[in-house]
Amino acid sequence: MDLNGSEQDPEMKAYSAVWVGREDNIKKSERMTAVVHDREVVIFYHKGEYHAMDIRCYHSGGPLHLGDIEDFDGRSCIVCPWHKYKITLATGEGLYQSINPKDPSAKPKWCSKGVMQRIHTVTVDNGNIYVTLSNDSFKCNSDFYATGNFKVIKSSS
């Protein structure tokens, strides 16, 4: 992987893969945080798969790296520690339970709010973990908290 990006134009450089750590380390901790092109992300290792998303919850900016991972309706989700919002690791969909108020015997079922949390690509190469930011053009709710004054990772400078 070409990580120096010296001959890439600035637009494409923002979407180049960035090394974030070693596979051994994330497998032990099952999560890690990183700054990728000035965007804070959390990377999860869950059930043998890697997932990366914006570190702040789309709802109110909660720190997703501190949340628990639980399964809801067969989908692995990070649960925001602030307000218990459920976000699928694979797609970034917000999940909620719904019930038909006209049917008092109905059981609540899990429904999707749509993609609310921006998901990024994780690749593994020779034991190294890389994250490539999403370049999907749609506006995602988590974008608001992904930049600016909401940083949770302290810089070394």
TrEMBL record:
Cofactor(s) it depends on: [2Fe-2S] cluster
**In this protein, which residues make up the domain named Rieske?**
17-131
Q: Which Pfam families match?
A: Rieske_4
Q: List the keywords (alphabetical).
A: 2Fe-2S, Acetylation, Iron, Iron-sulfur, Metal-binding, Phosphoprotein, Repeat
Asked if the keyword Metal-binding belongs to this entry, the reply reads yes
What's an example of a GO molecular-function annotation for this chain? 2 iron, 2 sulfur cluster binding
Q: Under what name is this protein listed? A: Rieske domain-containing protein
Q: What is the lineage of its organism?
A: Eukaryota, Metazoa, Chordata, Craniata, Vertebrata
